[in-house]
Amino acid sequence: MTERRRFKQAIPLEERLAAEAIRLREQANESAPSEAAPGTERETLLRKARQAGTGSHMSEWLRSPGLQAPE
Predict the structure, then answer these.
(1) What is the structure's pLDDT at 24?
(2) What's the pLDDT at 4?
């Protein structure tokens, strides 16, 4: 059986997801109107940005010190 390689992330998940959301929003705003289907592509990018932002907020919430462990 092969051993799993472990990789320690230098940047926390919340920060990586937030940065990805910003990048996707910028990419959506830069999409040229001369493309074949700018509306569909832009909406897809915005949806992915919302998902990344939501994931970042959920991860922050789950790691918050005020959250109590179930008994």
Answers:
(1) 92
(2) 87
Q: According to the model, what pLDDT value does residue 23 have? A: 93
Cα–Cα dist 69/46, whole Å = 34
Token couple for 53: 């932002």
Q: Which positions of the chain have pLDDT values less than 70? A: 31-38, 67-71
**Beta-carbon contacts of residue 32 (< 8 Å; ≥ 6 apart):** 38
List phi, psi (to 5°) of 26.
Answer: -65, -40
Kindly report the pTM of this predicted structure: 0.69
Q: Residues with Cβ < 8 Å from 2, sequence gap 6 or more?
A: none
Q: At what angle do helices 38-63 and 13-30 cross, to 10 degrees?
A: 160
Lookup: tokens for 40: 């569909």
CA distance 64 to 53: 17
